Amino acid sequence: MNSTEIPIQTEMVELVPNGKHAVVASSVPSIGNDRFEENQTNLPEREEFLPHGVEKKQTNFTDFEGKTSFGMSVFNLSNAIMGSGILGLAYAMANTGILLFLFLLTAVALLSSYSIHLLLKSSGIVGIRAYEQLGYRAFGTPGKLAAAIAITLQNIGAMSSYLYIVKSEVPLVLQTFLNLEEKSTYWYANGNYLVIMVSVCIILPLALMKQLGYLGYASGFSLSCMVFFLISVIYKKFQIPCPLVDVNTTSNQNFTVVSTSSYQSDHTIVQATEEDVCTPSLLTLNSQTAYTIPIMAFAFVCHPEVLPIYTELKNPTKKKMQCIANISITVMYVMYFLAALFGYLTFYGQVESELLHTYSRVSSFDVLILCVRVAVLTAVTLTVPIVLFPVRRAIQQMLFPDKEFSWIRHIIIAIVLLTSINLLVIFAPSILGIFGLIGATSAPCLIFIFPAIFYIRIIPKDKEPTKSPPKILAALFACLGVLFMIMSLSFIIIDWATGGGKSGGGH
Question: What residue stretches are annotated with the Amino acid transporter transmembrane domain (predicted)?
C-alpha cells in the first residue's frame, strides 16, 4: 500500500504549480486530520490543474472555474476599495495638514498591502480561498463564525452608507434638473421611493449575477465616474477664488464691513484674513485631527472581497493576486491624494466634511458640479453589488456550509439583504452612527487582527517558528489593529457623549 501511495502524492505535487499543495503535502503530519473538515473547499485549486482523466468532484464553495481576467479583477478590487469616504478626504487633510495626511495615507496603503499578503500566504498554504474558511482552519467553528459575522456587519454598514447617500442626494439632483421647489411633495422627489427604485432597477439585477467577475464592466464604469469627479475637483481649483464667497448667506463672515472703520483699515483686515484663510497648512493638530485618523486607517478596506476575487481569477497564483492588490491600492492611493489635495487647496479651512456640499456654497446651480453629483451617485450605486457578494458568501458559509450552489438560495439571500438594508436606510435616519460603531469594531478585525492571527495559526511552525521575524511582525500588526479599534471606539463614544456628529462612518 505504501509503495502505491507515495508516487500518487509525488505526482500531485508536480501537477500543482507554485508549490502550493507541495507545502500542504509536506505539512500534513504537523497539521493532522484537522487540516480541513470541509475538504471540498480547496478543490477549485486542484481542479484547474488536474488532468481531464481524473474524475472531478462537485464543490460546495466555488462551483465554477476562475474566468475573470487580470484587468477586470483590478477594476473589481479598486471599486471595492473606493467608497464614499473619498468625499471626506479633503476635510481630513484640512485637519491634519498636507504632510501628516500624506504620511498617514502612505502608511495605511502599505499596511493594507501587507495585510493582503498575509491573507494570500495563509490561503496558499492550505489551499483555501475564503475568508471564513481561513477562520475555520485557524480556530475551528468560532473562527469561521467570527470572520463571517465581521464581514456581514462591515459590508452591511458600507452598503447602508452608500444607499443613504442615494436617498439624500438623488432628490437634490432631480430637483435641480426639474427646477422644483426645495421641499417638493412629488413622489419622484421623495428619497425613500427613489432609493427603493434604484435598488430594484439597478442594484438587484447586478447582485443576482452568479460570479463577481461579471461585475468588472460595471466596476470599470464606476471607476471612470470617480475619475471624472477627480478631474472636476482639479479643474474647480483654478475656477473658484479664495476666500470663498458663500452664495447662501447675505454677507461673508470674512468680509464684515464696519462702518466706523476707514477704507485703509478695512483693506488691511481683508488682506490679513485672506492670508490666514488661503494659506495651506503642512501640519495641523486640532481637536478634529483625532477623528480623521480612523477614517484614514479604513480608507483601503477591501479585504472581504480579496479572496472571492482571487477565487474567480483566471489562472490564479498568489503572486498574480498580490500584483492585482498592489495595482488597485496604488491607483486608489493616487486618486485619494489628488482628490484630497485639490479639494483642500480650493477651500482650505472652509472645506466641509462632505466635499460636494462645499461646492454648493459657490453656486446654487453649477452644471459641472451637478454632473459630478450624478457621477458620484453612479459610482456609489455600482459599488453596492460588489460589497454584497462577500456578505452573501458569508451567510451561506454560516447557514448552508455543506450545500451546493442553488439559484433559489442565491436570489433569496440577495433580495432579503437589499430589503433589510433599504428598511434600515428608510426608517432609521441615524443608522450611519450605529454602523459607524460597528465599523469601528469589524473593520480593524478584517484589516489587521484576523489576517495576522490567521497567519500565525495557519503557517506551520516547522516553516516559520513562533518567534520568527514574520510571525513577530504579524503579532505586532494584530496589536496595531487592537489599538485602532480602541481609538476608534473612544472617539465615537466621546463624539456621542458631546453631542457631535463627526465620527461618521464612510467607507
Answer: 67-494
